[in-house]
User: What shape does this take?
Amino acid sequence: MTTGKINVSVENIFPLIKKFLYSDHEIFLRELVSNGTDATLKLKHLISIGEAKVEYGNPIIEIKVDKEGKKIHIIDQGLGMTADEVEKYINQVAFSGAEEFLDKYKDSAKDSGIIGHFGLGFYSAFMVAEKVEIITKSYKDEPAAHWTCDGSPEFTLEPADKTSRGTEIILHIAEDSLEFLEDSKISGLLNKYNKFMPIPIKFGTRTETLPKPEDAPEDYINETIELDNIINNPNPAWTKQPSELSDEDYKNFYRELYPMQFEEPLFNIHLNVDYPFNLTGILYFPKLGTDMQIQKDKIQLYQNQVYVTDNVEGIVPEFLTMLKGIIDSPDIPLNVSRSGLQADGAVKKISNYITRKVADKLKALFNENRADFEAKWNDIKIVLEYGMLSEDKFYEKAGAFVLYPTVDDTYFTLEELKEKLKENQTDKDGKLVILYAGNKDAQHSYIEAAKEKGYEVLLLDSPIISHLIQKIEGDNSGLTFVRVDSDHIDNLIKKEENTISKLSDEEKAALKTSLEAYIPKAYSVQLEAMDSQAAPFIITQPEFMRRMKEMSQTGGGGMFGMGNMPEMYNLVVNTNSDLASSILNTEDKTHQEHLVKQALDLAKLSQNLLKGEALTAFVKRSFEMIK
Ligand code: ADP
Assistant: This one.
């Protein structure tokens, strides 16, 4: 038997490992199962190049929990190690690796932490074990070795009588980690980290009832057999070629990934690139609607089929973090902090690639089946609109598939819309006027007024729309977006000469005085000579102020404080309306007040502004009138 002292500069690194990674003790299992997987894949490779002359067979990795003995066994059938290799790889490589890791970790711990805490490897075993044994037999014709270490730098190494190829790691679980001896805990961890690892993983057995034979007698008792309980799918969909997969396969994989998710995804994007970096994965567009809900089923990051994290911030462009699915890339550095990740050139390339793939897929879907794309628009628009705002590369491509629906569900691209509106919807400076509504019900009367004139009205109801239209206007000097209730429709789109006013200047001045006597200061009164059929009183909310206010409420940079501004309203009075004449010509002041207030309330009603006490008073007054 050999005993020795492992050469480490830190006298005892185990307390350090425990301390630094306190919240992540559970990764020990992932690390050890990964080592077993690597050892198995390495053997496969050696056999394929003729280096190892042994039978590969159907290797699995087995996890056994011995609750009474307080032990966990991780057993693989990989290439194994000779005694010399244990000296080299475990005593030297693994230890120096652990030291290096700790050095890095100490620095970035102050930062936001290392993603997934990858890289600790074999020594993560000491986060949960007070003693670790390795019993290993190499594929080479050499005796098996037995290594033991209790966490101090002293170890023992002696021959063992293991005859089958592979490595068994035995963890003697420490008193403060006994929770890991629960089957449910281990199967939970295997399900989280190892669900798609490339070598079958056995945890326990399951019984299966055999089918009853056809000629079975009356009193036949069903036979059962014990089978290995394999907890993973070693060949998940993303490792296959898109050409091998049907729509149903993609949907099945979605269910496998999120068993608790019952809604089907709208479509998927298969990522597959091997140069200049390696990345595979499948992203799904879920049904999103207009609310940016907090997500529980997030995109998962894997590395060679090993789960790392579901915090993909910095790797996936922010607007796509609302998607679901997985990405797998060995080229994402995991032992750096998040801020380091964002500065990493390779990671930036990956993020740009994902953006481009998503844009290309959307364009293809749009071109292949526009009707289907339109039908899905409401569920995907929030991601796309957010993408246009946050990623210039996406914005550039978005023109080809981003849609602008009308209140009557006709969908235009921006180019189509420009073409459509250029005849009929321009303002006095020749700019295209894009009329839109934010809410079909609340702005119903304004929408109707615009439609009566033959104008197209868009329905743009995303919470971030004001930011987006601001950006689009900035890039398209020839067009302007105005909400239908931002002014009287005839002021928004000037078609012919102004209507001649029925009232003289003196009459207008008198009308204004009478109106202002009864109308609250919050409204600025605006007299307009319009078609006599046009609504006599309407309340409008100027586009610019309303948009700025909305932008500041949904996180517009540099506009803090505007969210607290009061709403600004105009009262537009049609001087050519019969009501305007009546108000002007009424001698009886009480009656005049009555007319103005009733008209104001009606205008408020159609802008959804009449509420509470004012609404009660209005209803009461109106009943009086029809008695
Ligand atoms: P890493 O896996 O990142 O190299 P580890 O600390 O996990 O670092 O392991 C150090 C070395 O020990 C590995 O590179 C490998 O050579 C050897 N090793 C660990 N586990 C096994 C195993 N189950 N079978 C064979 N070799 C192993």
